[in-house]
Amino acid sequence: MAQIKLKLIMERSSSGGSGGCGAYIPGGEQVEGRQDTMADISALLSGIRETFGDRVDISVMDPRSIFSFFDLFRYRVRGTDPVWILNGRKAFEGVPARDELERSIQSLL
């Protein structure tokens, strides 16, 4: 059984967790739109986990983290839109439709 690696590079909420610095975050003033995006992404990731189970290894990285430094250049991450990486290739920017994401994953299995 093939294992697909899904990496999501997106800004996590600056209101919770550790590292609560007071730095300006572009797009941070659009809180309502960002909450909708977070809800959409959460639903997508839950759906992927339901549909594919352990066949998809999901990791989420914050672009502000030092650990994502090389990925920002490798995948040409710009702005605050989420970037979806499937098996080392940039698949989507923004929030894809669920059926698009599932088709892309299915084609790799």
Automatic annotation (TrEMBL):
It comes from the Bacteria. This is Uncharacterized protein. It comes from Aminivibrio pyruvatiphilus.
